């Protein structure tokens, strides 16, 4: 039987747009006390405005250990516990490796890999304080089917897959269920903002020649709301259900 999130404390990184925002909305609607983390305060506020119940926004850069520590100190002060940590914050770059700037490396590795490392490290004592709970990390289909020009995204998400598997073993004795979601394309998130028109113009023929566009890119992308519903289902499954790696992708 599905559980409830009523009264639970859910921290959602990347909660201001896309999948994170849609999942946070659903959690709040079902009675969770939700904490949204992202860098831009205006987008956090706009997201929180549309949500029911208790929603705390904390402008946070997950690539910074100090910023994440400060955010969780605030969560501890306010709630004293965390029941759910949903790591959605993510960025990508389209770059040939020789054109990859230090900023691109730091953005991808910092957000997609160091981000969840920082949030999990800070959340674990608070998940223990709650008597256990869920950590769900959002990875990407790029870890199953590689594409050219996205190597920093691939490397950082592969790192996330490995970190998540290690945490699953390390935290199971604490009743903390750790899951990895390998996600396919989303239609309506802000992820496209990661790419300029020029990036896309250059990448298209390369991806076409690689076969990526017919292998993966041809399927109709999912909506953030659809994915949020599936994530909500995972987060309310009974604790005895293992959901180590879940692949959510457009059918076809
Ligand atoms: N979109 C897709 O097709 C797709 C496919 C597969 C997997 N995914 C993965 O699914 C997740 C959600 O994707 P989405 O498309 O919903 O993304 P999105 O709409 O672009 O949202 C990204 C979120 O992450 C936040 N963020 C970015 N860098 C951050 C940082 N350093 N610190 C804190 N927050 C940060 C953004 O807010 P700020 O910029 O204000 O910080 C925003 O809230 C990501 O992990 C992505 O890699 C997406």
TrEMBL record:
Pfam entry (one): adh_short
Example GO molecular function: oxidoreductase activity
Keywords associated with the record: Oxidoreductase
Source organism, top-level taxon: Bacteria
PROSITE patterns listed in its UniProt record: ADH_SHORT
Enzyme Commission designation: 1.-.-.-
InterPro entries: NAD(P)-bd_dom_sf, Sc_DH/Rdtase_CS, SDR_fam
Top EC class of this enzyme: oxidoreductase
Stored CDD domains: SDR_c
Assigned protein family: Belongs to the short-chain dehydrogenases/reductases (SDR) family.
PANTHER family (UniProt xref): DEHYDROGENASE/REDUCTASE SDR FAMILY MEMBER 7B (PTHR44196), DEHYDROGENASE_REDUCTASE SDR FAMILY MEMBER 7B (PTHR44196:SF1)
Protein name: SDR family oxidoreductase
Organism: Streptacidiphilus cavernicola
């Amino acid at each position: 039987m599905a559980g409830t999130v009523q009264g639970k404390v859910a921290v959602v990184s990347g909660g201001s747009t896309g999948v994170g925002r849609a999942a946070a909305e659903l959690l709040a609607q079902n009675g969770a006390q939700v904490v949204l983390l992202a860098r831009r305060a205006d987008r956090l506020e706009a997201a929180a405005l549309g949500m029911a119940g208790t929603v705390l926004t904390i402008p946070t850069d997950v690539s910074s250990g100090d910023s994440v520590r400060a955010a969780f100190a605030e969560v501890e002060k306010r709630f004293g516990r965390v029941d759910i940590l949903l790591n959605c914050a993510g960025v990508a770059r389209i770059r040939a490796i020789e054109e990859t700037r230090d900023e691109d490396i730091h953005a991808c590795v910092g957000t997609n890999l160091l981000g969840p490392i920082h949030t999990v490290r800070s959340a674990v004592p608070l998940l223990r304080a709650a008597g256990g709970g869920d950590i769900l990390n959002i990875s990407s289909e790029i870890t199953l089917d590689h594409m050219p020009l996205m190597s920093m995204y691939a490397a950082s998400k592969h790192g996330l897959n490995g970190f998540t598997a290690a945490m699953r073993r390390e935290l199971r004795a604490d009743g903390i269920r750790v899951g990895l979601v390998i996600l396919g394309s989303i239609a309506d998130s802000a992820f496209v903002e990661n790419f300029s028109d020029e990036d896309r113009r250059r990448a298209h023929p390369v991806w076409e020649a690689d076969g990526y566009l017919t292998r993966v890119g041809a399927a109709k992308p999912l909506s953030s709301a659809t994915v949020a519903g599936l994530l909500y289902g995972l987060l309310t499954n009974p604790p005895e259900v293992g959901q180590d790696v879940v692949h959510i992708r457009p059918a076809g």
